[in-house]
Amino acid sequence: MLIDTHSHIYTEEFLDDIDEVIQRAYENEVRKIVLPNIDSSTVRKMLDLSEQYPHICYPLMGLHPTSVNEDYEDELQLVEFWLQKQKFYGIGEVGIDLYWDKTFVTEQIDAFRRQIRMAIKYDLPLVIHFRESFNEVMQVLKEEQVPGLRGVFHSFSGSLEQAQQVIDLGFKLGVNGVVTFKNSGMDKVIENIDPCHLILETDAPYLTPVPFRGKRNESSYLIYVAQRVADLHRMSVTELAKLSTRNAEHLFQI
Hints:
Layout: E1 2-4, H1 18-27, E2 30-35, H2 43-52, E3 57-59, H3 72-85, E4 91-95, H4 105-122, E5 126-129, H5 134-144, E6 151-153, H6 160-168, E7 172-175, H7 186-190, E8 198-200, H8 222-232, H9 237-252
């Protein structure tokens, strides 16, 4: 069994064939799918899918850094509202993104800090987005660190040294289709990290693995990520699946 620990299959890209997408995932041994939220515009779609497939889809609640703007205070209030209203399995997707736009970097840092505190308050794992912002994210995490704070650095694309910093903090590394890209360099990093620190993800509809790169990603393609990581560690995909699934089940309590 595999768990896709990061998938946005509730978005409009899957409007016409979501049932088939879920079916293909199931046929490829992907039996659980974690759904990180983006912002107030995606909550209802995410929850509808989770209610439709309650034993497959597990929702998270959070405000994505690229959705942080002048009304982020209202967005954070909505995150807190939902956390009080029903069960979620993590706080995400949260963090800092300095790639697309640095206009609201101060607000991004504040939103991240406050959502870390929500993770502590509700005893939930963090799913962290850190595009071009590893040092900034680590700084905030260290300032807010308390015993029990845990989570995953989603779509990990850093160096071996950075990976060790994440592991030392007690967090997991999220590995997706990037590890299958020929020139990404992630294979050299991942092969030197004990699989006990890894969880697998797709980030669907983005970052589609080889051999489907360039097409819409979906949870069924997680098998290609699993196979690549297994090959790097010279183990069977069954062994790797057991390890990564145990890691994911423990982190998200699913």
